[in-house]
Amino acid sequence: MTTTTVNREWHLLSRPVGWPKPEDFALVESPLPAPREGQVLVRNTYLSVDPYMRGRMSAQKSYVAPFELGKAMQGGAVGEVIESRAEGISVGDHVLHPLGWREYAVLGAEHAVKVDPEAAPLSSYLGVLGMTGLTAYAGLLRTAAFKEGDTVFVSGAAGAVGSQVGQIAKLKGAARVIGSAGSDDKVRLLVEEYGFDAAFNYKKGPVAEQLREAAPDGIDVYFDNVGGDHLEAAIGSLREGGRIAICGMISVYNNTEPAPGPRNLARLIQTRGRIEGFLVNDHRDLQPQFVDEVGPWVASGRLKYRETVVEGIENTLDAFLGLLRGDNTGKMIVKL
Question: Is the pLDDT of residue 102 over 80?
């Protein structure tokens, strides 16, 4: 049982225009409701902040409903059940659920997935073994139809999804894996720790030129986390039958005017190339296969991952804004 009757949670006060500002948000205290029949009360241990959350802050229709003004925001979280009125979930169980951005969560048991803190660190269920990892797995293997011998280019490659894409490609027999990142330290991390064959700092010169230098014979697969000049560069280097999986376009999320599209789309005609966007929720059927294959790689250390951990519920917004700036290496996590 919890001894507190007050919950601290982050509310969206106004819809950001361009870059989100601190005054668009507030950390508020609210009464903590008791769980009803079929519900559980969870003390959150780790919260996830993710790029897609920026889209939910606008009122535009998208694949997921916008955050409601004046109400608690949502996101992935993992925590300990401290009260249960639901069959199959007991006090002391640890669960993964979608009610982050708050200290405590009351939710229906159908929205809670039990996780094992003995099998892997709790935070990993928000990243390498969670939605982040499944995004990398499904996007590379299903959407981009990766096959052994492909040359793969990943943008945002030092981020939580990108770093896993590159490593999975290597583990499954890629001929060459190239990554782009926003600092020299991240470039070194990609090559020295994650095993990428080549990497470059996109801030140090035109992406198209640096990609041609890293992959002089072209690429078969591009996994896009960035959009913009990265997407145009990838189309320019795409080989015949090449595939592009669009996971995210963080370079344009805070634009107030529509960003111009790639100027070289006509190249897809001669290469018979394919561009396809995807959402991880459409590929939940891969979850058992994903855990069976990737879990042992993580446990054995063959697949490495990093986390950037920010401590304290009061610093959740700072963590999110830092994510948009690219301050993180690997998965951005808030520890409560």
Answer: yes
